[in-house]
Amino acid sequence: MLYLTFSIGFAFLMGIAVIIIRMKAQKYPVNEKKIILPPFFMATGALMYVVPYFRLTGLEILESIILGVLFSSVLIWTSKFEVQGSEVYMKRSKAFPIILIGLLVIRTVIKIFVSNTIEPGQLAGMFFLLAFSMIVPWRLAMLYKYKKLKRTLVQ
């Protein structure tokens, strides 16, 4: 129970930090590097699977990836760019922080329900994979949209 309480509290603190960082980042121009690097930095977390405590079954992997891709679709839908002068910026969206909080709440509810049946290590592994499966499609879609918009600026 202590692990669950700590992990939920930590997740909410991290969620708030992400919202603040994302809102501040919208004040600066976007480039390919800023879009594509976060998944690479996050990928180092996959080293957790070296330790047997965090390893997942095939079904747990599939469930995590499916949920991550579903959650990413909401982020893809709300992530838009705008041109200011000759620079490309993330378009401010009032829905973005609400969506991030909503996704965090949904993940927390899922964690509460499955924490009784899944070991903490496997649960951590599943939620890392869910987050990674959410950020990769989102960032790839952002990169695609960015390049498409950047091509129109060059012409």
UniProtKB/TrEMBL annotation:
The chain crosses the membrane at residues 6-23, 35-55, 61-83, 95-114, 120-141. The keyword Membrane applies. InterPro entries: CcdC, DUF1453. Keywords: Membrane, Transmembrane, Transmembrane helix. The keyword Transmembrane helix applies. This is DUF1453 family protein.
